[in-house]
Automatic annotation (TrEMBL):
It comes from the Bacteria. Residues 174-432 form the Sulfatase-modifying factor enzyme-like domain. The gene is egtB. One of its GO terms (molecular function) is iron ion binding. Residues 16-146 form the DinB-like domain. This is Hercynine oxygenase. Catalyzes the oxidative sulfurization of hercynine (N-alpha,N-alpha,N-alpha-trimethyl-L-histidine) into hercynyl-gamma-L-glutamyl-L-cysteine sulfoxide, a step in the biosynthesis pathway of ergothioneine. Fe cation binds at residues 52, 138, 142.
């Protein structure tokens, strides 16, 4: 992405504007009581996310990049995510909704003024408009978080889809794809708005493996349930087994059984579980157990990225499975365009050269891997972005979901969460080692 300064400025401004449009939608579609309420102890009140978005923008774009005086230093502590866990945020002295809307609008006007005036070069925060891209991604990530809050909220539907999902499945696909062994380039040193944990690019040796062509579907997951998957400790990691027993889990979050049918709640609507959609709202433990039941395993993070980015013809690492072009609606289900993942096998235009589909968009995919730094990692611009999360507590998710905006989604993008979490838009696909005979 080499761009002249004007094109860069326009890209940064439009990324910020797109994020703000979405923030506005998510914070004006409910009344004030729903903005200040905590809908789940796992989530912040929506009005906390809103003002936190503005506070981060103020700290980075106005104070650090623009060198301006602090607008509201008195609220920095209230909106510091590390100072206050989500469960404690409703009791903080939060800005009221109207005040929060006014604050974020004021910050944004000043940020756009700085963007107009400042050279987009001369340091890592300014080069290619990184700080502006980082803040647009931050806002979009909170928009995804707020969409999760909407999914957890009880009450009638307030979000609607502009259009129904198009029919994009184009025939019978092979169940799995062989990815030949050998080295590939993981991570990036060139993607201008990539975050610290995606860097630097480095070579990895990955032996041959087979990976599912598509994410695991609801229908396939139902077979695991009906086969007694939740009642059989053979399939579960020890911690996972203890967790499902303690909490009485027997299906993905938001599912319930009525007669002989599975129903799910989706943004305020209860509907039959569609068997052909990727399974959604499963924990890492559930994904891992399903894979073992199926005689398979979760892909490692390196396997996932190789399937998504490695060009087998020239050995080059691509930005996306389909090449280097930014995502379009034909490539992937991103950006909250729809409020659901597309049926498995959709998006032929987004498939990898080897034929793997829906790696980008639809559902975040759990991988087998812990969240660890790449060799040569350097924290930037602050340790709390990634470094404090490295270790064996968190598992990596890849590829983004229907709730992720293209600005915060790349073949190199890494997400992480605790293995028990399932309020997130998480699914998975499975893999296995290649059979040496079949591969020869
Ligand atoms: Fe944040």
């Amino acid at each position: 992405m080499t761009m002249d300064p004007e094109a860069l400025r326009e890209r940064a401004a439009s990324a910020l504007l797109a994020a703000r449009d979405r923030t506005r939608l998510l914070t004006t579609c409910v009344e004030e009581p729903d903005l200040v309420a905590q809908h789940s102890p796992l989530m912040s009140p929506l009005v906390w996310d809103l003002a936190h978005i503005g506070n981060q923008e103020e700290q980075w774009l106005l104070r650090t990049v623009g060198g301006r005086d602090a607008l509201r230093p008195d609220i920095d502590s209230v909106y510091d995510a590390f100072e206050h866990p989500r469960a404690a945020r409703p009791s903080l002295p939060l800005l009221a909704p109207a005040e929060a809307h006014g604050y974020v609008a004021d910050v944004r006007a000043r940020a756009l003024d700085i963007l107009e005036r400042i050279p987009l070069c001369g340091g890592p925060l300014l080069d290619a408009g990184f700080a502006f891209g980082m803040i647009a991604q931050h806002e979009q990530q909170h928009d995804e978080t707020m969409l999760i809050t909407h999914q957890l909220r009880r009450g009638p539907a307030v979000l609607t889809e502009a259009e129904p999902l198009p029919a994009l499945v184009d025939g019978i696909l092979p169940a799995e794809v062989l990815v030949p062994g050998g080295p590939f380039t993981m991570g990036t040193s060139t993607e201008p708005w990539a975050l610290d944990n995606e860097r630097p690019a480095h070579r990895r040796m990955v032996p041959s493996f087979l990976i599912d062509t598509t994410p695991v579907s609801n229908g396939a997951y139902q077979r695991f349930i009906e086969d007694g998957g939740y009642d059989d400790p053979r399939w579960w990691a020890a911690d996972g087994w203890a967790h499902v027993r303690e909490h009485g889990l027997h299906a993905p979050l938001f599912w319930r059984r009525e007669g002989n049918q599975w129903l799910r709640r989706r943004f305020g609507v209860t509907e039959p579980v569609p068997p052909d959609e990727p399974v959604l709202h499963v924990s890492w433990y559930e994904a891992d157990a399903y894979a073992r039941w199926a005689g398979r395993r979760l892909p490692t993070e390196a396997e996932w990225e190789k399937a998504a980015r490695h060009g087998p013809a020239d050995g080059r690492a691509m930005r996306y499975p389909w090449g280097d072009e930014d995502p379009t609606p034909a490539h992937a289900n991103l950006g909250q365009r729809y409020l659901r993942p597309a049926p498995v096998g959709s998006y032929p235009d987004g498939e990898s050269p080897l034929g793997v589909r829906q790696l980008i968009g639809d559902v975040w995919e759990w991988t087998a891997s812990d969240f660890l730094p790449y060799p040569g990692f350097a924290a930037f611009p602050y340790r709390e972005y990634s470094e404090v999360f490295f270790g064996s507590s968190y598992k990596v998710l890849r590829g983004g979901s229907f709730a992720v905006d293209p600005v915060a989604c790349r073949g190199t993008f890494r997400n992480w969460d605790l293995p028990i979490r399932r309020q997130i838009f998480s699914g998975f696909r499975t893999a296995r080692d290649a059979d040496p005979v079949a591969e020869a």
